[in-house]
Predict the structure.
Amino acid sequence: MQGNYLINLIGFRPRRYRVIEGTLKGRQTVATLFWAQQYRIQGWFGYRRKLVRTKFDDQLTAWAKTGIVVLDQQAQTVVLTPAGQQLAAEYRRNHYLPQCGHLSWLVNTNRLAQRLLLAIQVVSEFAHQSHRYLPLDVSTAEMAAVKQWFYACRDRLVPTVGEECYQLAESLAKTDSRWPQLFVSQLVGWQTSGMYDQQLQRSLQVSADSLSLMKHDVWLAIANQLNVHDKWLLAMLVKPLLRRSPLSASAEQTLTAYLGGMDVQQISDRRHLKATTIREHLLAAAIQLPGVLDARQLIGKQRWQEFTRRYTGPVDQWHWASAATEDPAESFFAFRLYQIVRSQHLDG
């Protein structure tokens, strides 16, 4: 049953299952980013952007009934039983596991795949002067982007796009010999229909879970290559889809302002955003761009020393407590930032 991959994101200590869900969906909240890092599952970020909560919950419930996991509905946590730990180890030995999680912030792979597959189909048919064919069923936005790109570059498309596809396949082969086959087998064009998922599973001898994860990795790897070769025609097509940073555009502006010497309140006033929002941006930057912030300065020398005395042991077992005289929001920001840098072994 597709969904067994979830066993890889559950541990032998309780984990918040909404964090697991949010990680798979690619939710960039500070809580999700922080706890995904603590659970060491950030490599799965964005692998199931269309994950349906009911199916996710049903899988966990089914495993709980068979003794694979223990669910705590009140705490909203899940933990593997000994039987579950054995099943997880067996799964990892026999299934494909993600290799490109560190690139998951770069692009929405669903949109990238739609745009590239349609573009390659159009160029293939154009190369053989075929004017009557059924274009792939993609969103209106992706179709419009491909159409604009085609008319802007049509004099250079053949055989340039073919050569770029060949180079992409060569680069994919350096990581996994199955990746080029998976990429090429999805292509649709002149007298080529591409393979369905069931055909790909048989051809590659992988499960439905493994195929889905492998596809996601392949598109992330392709996005990374096109980001490097930004003068390629295919790169010109997908450039609007590629992000410059793992941070949101708003968080990037906040980080730039902070690094430029402004404090939280000044940034809040300048950007007309709540101070809590600015702090969220800075926490996201601390998580996703380790070392970019001067944590000691933000937390303050006296509080840093207090935290050093108060908090010891595993970071994920610390509990925040605010003094009556403190602003709770600011106090929690300092606590979370300290957790983050300690877990990254920074600012020791």
Remarks:
- The CA atoms of residues 21 and 52 lie 9 Å apart.
- The first strand starts at residue 15 and ends at 16.
